[in-house]
Amino acid sequence: MYDMGTRKRALALVAQGRSLNAVSKQTGISRAAIRSWQSRIEPLGRTTPCPRCQDTPSLPADPVAYAYLLGLYLGDGCISHLRRNTHFLRIACADAWPGLIDLCTEAMQAIRPDNKVFRIQREGCQYVTCYSNHWPCFFPQHGPGKKHHRKIALAPWQQEIVDAYPWEFIRGLIHSDGCRITNWTEKTIGGERKRYEYPRYFFTNLSADIIRLFTDTLDVVGVAWKQANRQNISIARKADVALLDLHVGPKH
User: Fold this and answer.
1) What is the CATH number of the domain that holds 190?
2) Domain containing 222: what range?
């Protein structure tokens, strides 16, 4: 018999992409035991029903958390398949932003409250991870290959949530693939060279579809933006930066 801590550590190794054979050799636990733990991740009758799998699909119970998590997923998230119908959602969060890691953990837990959310430490970052049979239901953008190599579009029910909570979606996107920086310039006034600093937000993504989702949502909330290049969006006007500071703020 293995305690719960041992089981979680073994499953965390699998979540890192290691084979069952490699995890078995490292831990001394049989592959059959690890497979059985995977199949019992969501025991019948003990997990929150999936709102998307019902005869009449409904929205996630916490649409605010979902809008934020959707932004994080489109930026730095992926869904991997284990066996049978078991999947795990993994979102990479830099160690430099512990507050972001906490927010990501809370949002993921709000969507699957009966499933354990855990963190896997890697060099310079943590993978916030959760097993569930239903992650593809929540994120139909899941598919083979990298996101920028395939079409990314929101399902009507996802767009309904983004329309209702646009700032949470923008916040998730910026927290994953955006930043708030301080730019500077120099001007000569009255013969004297002076340095001026001003804040700016950037969002960077290789997917033109995800860029479009970001800018379309900025348009909805009235934030002006400029496309610096094919994969970079800049928000620099003072009033727009102030809006983002109010609703998003710098990573922490």
Assistant:
1) 3.10.28.10
2) 169-247
What is the rounded CA–CA span in Å between residue 182 and residue 43? 49
Domain annotation covers residue 7: yes
Predicted TM-score of the model (pTM): 0.81
Output Rg (C-alpha) for the chain, integer angstroms.
21
Q: Is residue 237 part of a domain?
A: yes
Q: Total domain count for the chain?
A: 2
Q: In 82-231, which ranges are continuous DSSP H helix?
A: 98-111, 135-138, 156-164, 166-177, 208-221
pLDDT by position in tens, the chain (length 252): 677 778 878 877 877 667 788 888 898 898 888 877 765 554 444 567 889 988 889 999 999 999 999 999 999 999 998 766 678 999 999 999 999 999 999 999 999 998 889 898 989 999 999 988 899 999 999 999 999 999 999 999 999 999 999 999 999 999 999 999 998 777 787 788 888 788 999 999 999 999 999 999 999 999 999 998 989 999 999 999 999 999 998 899
